[in-house]
Design a protein that fits this description.
The protein is of the alpha+beta class. Helix content is 27%, strand content 22%. A hairpin with a 3-residue loop joins strand 2 and strand 3.
């Protein structure tokens, strides 16, 4: 029937492909099914901090998740907290660095509030503790408001 064995193979291959394609049932997709599912907090990428605040007062204590880039989580003011962290970020400095040991600090007590911040910021691990035990510690805390609660002092 066919003069060329190559042409015969191509026609058989083409017919097989069409038969296989015809056996697939097309399922119409709604616009909703084409959209990716919303990101769950555990699936997010970017910066993530866990902020635990104690003895700061009613409505300020608790453990909060803060996601930045994009912002979200359980932090009461995630967008402002992320913006403050972005403004305070400087190349070559640690946003969460402790007060240097040789600092001269005022003998001032800012209250019993403490905070512990863990996670990742700017691709670096964070494990920082905060209190308000003297003027330097109060200033360090205040630099991180609204990541940490405003103590109004």
């Amino acid at each position: 029937m066919f003069q060329s064995p190559r042409l015969a193979r191509l026609l058989v291959l083409g017919a097989s492909t069409l038969a296989a394609a015809g056996s697939v049932t097309a399922v119409p997709a709604s616009a909703h099914s084409l959209m990716p599912p919303p990101a769950r907090d555990e699936d997010r990428t970017g910066d993530h901090l866990t902020v635990t605040v104690r003895d700061a007062g009613t409505g300020k204590d608790g453990t909060f998740e803060l996601y930045c880039h994009p912002g979200g989580g359980t932090h009461p003011d995630a967008d402002s907290a992320c913006a403050a962290l972005d403004r305070g970020a400087r190349w070559g400095t640690d946003t969460f660095a402790p007060v240097p040991r040789d600092s001269l600090c005022t003998l001032q007590y800012g209250g019993p509030a403490t905070a512990h911040v863990t996670g990742t910021w700017a691709g670096r691990p964070v494990d920082a503790r905060f209190d308000r035990s003297d003027g330097c510690q109060i200033a360090r805390w205040d630099r991180l408001v609204p990541v940490l609660p405003d103590m109004g002092q």
